[in-house]
Amino acid sequence: MAKHDKDATFVGDSRISAKRIPNIAPSYSDFPGKSEPFWPNFLLKEWMVAAVCLVGFLILTVSHPSPLTDKANPNDTSFVPLPDWYFLFLYQLLKYPWASGDWVVLGTIIIPAVAFGAMVLAPWLDKGKERRAKKRPVATGLMLVSLVGIFYLTWAADHEHSLHHSSNQAGGGAVASGDPNFKPDEIWTKQTSCMGCHGNNMEGMVGPNLQKIGSKYSAEEIEGIIKNGKPPGMPAGLIKDEAEIKKLAEYMAGLK
Amino acid sequence: MIQKMYDWVDERLNVTPMWRDLADHEVPEHVNPAHHFSAFVYCFGGLTFFITVIQILSGMFLTMYYVPDIVNAYESVKYLQNEVAFGVIVRGMHHWGASLVIVMMFLHTLRVFFTGSYKKPRELNWVVGMLIFFVMLGLGFTGYLLPWDNTAYFATKVGLEIANSVPLIGPYIKTLLTGGDIVGAQTLSRFFAIHVFFLPGALLGLLAGHFIMIRAQGISGPL
Amino acid sequence: MSEKREISRRTFLNYALMGTGGFLAAGMITPMIRFAVDPLLKASAGGDKVAVGSVDEFGPEPKRVEFKVHTKDGWYESDSVLSAWVTKNDKGEILALSPICKHLGCTVNWNDNPDYPNEYYCPCHGGRYNINGQQYIGTPPTKPLDEYETEVKDGKLYLGKIKPNPRPGVSE
Predict the structure, then answer these.
(1) What is the pLDDT of residues A18-31, one digit of tens each?
(2) Could you report the per-residue pLDDT of A71-97, keeping only the tens digit for each?
(3) What is the percentage of chain A residues whose pLDDT exceeds 90?
(4) Chain A within 8 Å of B19 (Cβ-Cβ)?
(5) Residue pLDDT, tens place only, C40-81
(6) Which structural domain range is residue A238 located in?
(7) CB–CB of A54 and C27 under 8 A?
(8) CB < 8 Å to C18, chain B
(9) Domain ends where: A177, A210, A228?
(10) In a domain, A244, yes or no
(11) Do residue B88 and residue A66 have CB atoms under 8 angstroms apart?
(12) What mean pLDDT do residues A118-129 have?
């Protein structure tokens, strides 16, 4: 701005040039081909995209209130911790035996450092002039492999968590509603494999409460569940004796 | 009237050249979705910035009610979400926006990567962009603790344990972030300070650098 | 001709841009502004009136009562103890005065200074009020003692919110 020009005149004793530049937009013919000025042509398109996104975003915020679980309680051992979704792939990585225990350095430092380091240094690792993705097979290939890895790890972490979490919830809900005065029949108290999860009095522990199971399932359905299991938590084939299963299912279907 | 005011300012500060430079720079055809629909991939950078603006604004407003203290943090979040008008929306904007900004930034990074736009002469801008990515992840990590609910508490605990497992410096990093021996009162106020002052400050500086470099170099040419 | 068309197109685009920008700004800011000004628009809690005793207990001589108020300040709820000087004149009108001195917020007492009998006296700077809470002109306070909203129901006196005392100051 303040060039040492002999003829330059300034506003007062400042370094602002006294010569005014007219505030006029150039004619569209100044832009070659299909180029266009940023203001207002292109910005308008960009803002219209932003407006569409904003509407969608506001609908999301209204329809899905942000979650808020119970107040932090360090003694709550039943809570399965889970980081925010975009950290899940790192979190999942540390669950694998080759990236934990003695190898934890691999999971916490080496793999992330190599991956993120390679990203930061990409311009120096991939110095070729070619810009098209297809003409840079190594860079493109590595990126695609990492993308698949990230997506897989994120999915795996979420999948494992949902398995844990749903059984957790069933257990939590059942304990609260268990009737302490409920006394199950002898046919139940013989089934130690059932009692391990559903409790001595069918009040529910890891597995759900069964004290009123007859209002939910018929005898045939209960038979099927005992034989074939029920995801996520109920294993198949814990009772081998067919007659025993039938007797138990009939008893349970009568609990309403 | 407005013209007179503009002229008055312009005479003293010569703002016209700056403004014309911003308004009149040309946008080439290959990034304009009106000409090639596939050019919408060039929108992700702008959308990232747009959501960042939402994040900054909603964050500013949330601090009107939020208290970074283990006794009151949860209560204040619950209060602002359930009892203050539009609290659901403002907290929702900040909560979902945090996820959305990561998604947009991820897509923007992929666009830059697959169009090879990080190559000479734009290496520095790529590095600044990567730093922005890390700052955003840091904002996500520190912000996650602030509502002080179970999700927040245990996720942070796990995160800090991961930091702890780093050889040699791990325990120091952990103590530095926790501010004490346990995840508690001191951790929360530390995370609040990092989330609200340190990282946003860094973010604004990096964003300014990112934009100045884009204006200086122009957008990368067509493939 | 073509020059003219270009200008009008640019103007149109400018207006469209302002419109879109306005929509964006409004969409973002409106919920946040409403969020921020909520305390202004929230109907004040009204404050349930608290019973302090039977009306018969009070006479022309000021009597001090203490009562508990439940305050809800955002997410912070607490019980605070307030006190009042209550008088009932011959017509049965009840006046409940706040003991907070209007000068600097000390607590006034009835008739506890032998020099100033039958007055509210503030020990901090010697502020003085008569039985109706009117300040004596020339003593530090410039306003009369605040009074509580009162209500008599089923022979019981209920005190509500504090409101300013409309009575003017008096000279000795």
Answers:
(1) 888 888 888 888 88
(2) 998 887 777 778 889 998 988 888 888
(3) 25
(4) yes
(5) 888 765 567 788 888 888 888 888 888 888 878 888 888 888
(6) 186-253
(7) yes
(8) none
(9) A177
(10) yes
(11) yes
(12) 93
Q: How many domains does chain A have?
A: 2
With 0.80 as the threshold, say if the pTM is over it.
no
Closest by CA position to B54, among listed B97, B12, B11: B97
How far apart are the C-alpha atoms of C111 and C120, rounded to whole Å?
A: 6
Would you say domain B42-216 falls under CATH 3.20.20.220? no
Task: Look at B57 and C28 and tell me if their CB atoms are within 8 Å.
Answer: yes
- Within-domain flag for A28: no
Q: Which chains touch B (3 or more CB pairs under 8 A)?
A: A, C
Q: What is the pLDDT of residue A166?
A: 59
The full 3-state SS of B41-108, as one line of letters, equals HHHHHHHHHHHHHHHHHHHHHHCCCCCCCCCCHHHHHHHHHHCCCCHHHHHHHHHHHHHHHHHHHHHH
Nearest beta carbon to residue A41 from set C13, C21, C28: C13
A209 within some domain: yes
C58/B92 Cα distance (integer angstroms): 55
* Mean pLDDT, range C108-130, rounded to an integer: 84
Last residue of a domain, one of A143, A177, A211: A177
Q: Based on the domain organization, do A172 and A89 belong to the same domain? A: yes
pLDDT at res. B174: 93
Coil, strand or helix at C107:
strand
Q: Does a structural domain hold residue A154?
A: yes
In this structure, the answer to whether residues A91 and A157 fall within a common structural domain is yes
Q: Find the closest chain A residue to C13 by CA distance.
A: A40
Closest CA to C148 of C15, C31, C52, C70: C52
Separation CA A21–CA A7 (nearest Å): 16
CATH class of the C50-163 domain in this structure: mainly beta
Q: Are residues A199 and A162 in the same domain?
A: no
Q: Which of B89, B92, B152 sits opposite A72 (nearest CB)?
A: B152
- The interface predicted TM-score (ipTM) is 0.90
**pLDDT tens, residue by residue, B138-173:** 999 999 999 999 999 999 998 898 888 888 888 999
CA atoms of A85 and C22, how far apart (whole Å): 33
Nearest Cα of chain C lies from the Cα of A85 at a distance, in angstroms, of 25
Structure tokens at B122: 């734009």
